[in-house]
Amino acid sequence: MAAQKINEAHDHIAKAEKHLKTSFMKWKPDYDSAASEYAKAAVAFKNAKQLEQAKDAYLKEAECHTNNRALFHAAKALEQAGMMLKDMQRMPEAIQYIEKASTMYVENGTPDTAAMALDRAGKLIEPVDLDKAVHLYQQAASVFENEDRLRQAAELLGKASRLLVRLRRYNVHTPLITMVLWVFFPVLVSSGFPMTMFVRFDEAAVSLQKEKNMYKEIENYPTCFKKTIAQVLVQLHRNDFVAADKCVRESYSIPGFSGSEDCVAMEQLLQAYDEQDEDQMSRVCNSPLLKYMDNDYAKLAISLMVPGGGKKKKSPITPEGDVGGTQAAEEEDEYAGGLC
Question: Compositional bias of type Acidic residues: which residue ranges (predicted)?
């Protein structure tokens, strides 16, 4: 069966090459017919599990469509070539072809298809390269934004934001600092050193703000509330209380936020952080509101600590009803040993 399919594929390639030849009576290659034959050859190779040859046939098909100025079909062929590489576990090469296809879709005037291709590429590469996935999601969001498709753009930015939080990029740029961190990292962690000081959430903070602005523009206010929570968590992990407080204050202008469950929780969280009240912070961070957010943000909530990592010492407060009793006890103590 496989041998039959391989022979069939070679027959189609021979026909394609014949269509590309010119002669005295045929001045131009027949790119359209050749592309059709290469596509049939690619399918035959694919059915015979000859993925490398299938990839090559799809690339030949794409080349023919490009020469024929049929950019949409060329992009489709490039995507198929990428899928063959994906099946061969050659993911970086696969993504390169899909990115090239997305560029062709834009040139062809079909940006929606370009954005969807980039989204698919992001999903493919996400398990092996979070950095590249972030880049692809951001590219796709940019394409949708240029087309005023803000809902789709915001959804893709949301994927990028979550991955940026997961990445927790280290703000290390010099070889010396990198070496020092690698040497002392286990010691610092075991001693309870706050490693968040080395972690960059800058990109996540910027991405979340842009995402929130888009949801606000399309009047999806409940989602804005959730983005405010995510912003506060990210900013507190950056040890930037002022920026976290600013995120909440800016959200007061969003209809329905002031007095909402989300608003009250964030006010309590900021108060706990500012006053170093570990108990209150634990109550807020373990509340259903935060525990059932997207997994990456829920993990931020659970791992959040007050500055210094300890409980605030609470000043003793005497209940009003016990004032008299306390004074009486003090008088008894004063004369308990007699007058002398």
Answer: 329-340
DSSP string spanning 189-222? HHTT--GGGGEE-HHHHHHHHHHHHHHHHTT-HH
Q: By three-state DSSP, how is residue 46 classified?
A: helix
**Dist CA 84 CA 88 (whole Å):** 6
Beta pairing partners, 200: 169
DSSP state of 311: P
Judged by average pLDDT, the poorest of 52-56, 190-194, 248-252, 302-306 is 190-194
Helix (H) or strand (E) holding 241: helix 241-251
Q: Around Cβ 218, how many Cβ atoms within 10 Å?
A: 13
What b/e readout covers 124-157, taking b as 16+ CB neighbours within 10 angstroms?
A: bbbeebbebbbbbbbbbbbbbbeeebbebbbbbb
**The total number of residues written for the chain in this structure:** 340
Residue 308 buriedness (CB in 10 A; 0-12 / 13-18 / 19+): exposed
pLDDT at residue 176 greater than cutoff 70: no
The tens digit of pLDDT for each residue in 31-86 reads: 999 999 999 999 999 999 999 999 999 999 999 999 999 999 999 999 999 999 99
Angle among Cα 240, 129, 304 to the nearest 5 degrees reads 25
CB 113 within 8 A of CB 76: no
Cα gap 261→269, rounded to integer Å:
12
Cβ neighbours for 232, distance < 8 A, ≥ 6 positions apart: 244, 247, 248, 266, 269, 270
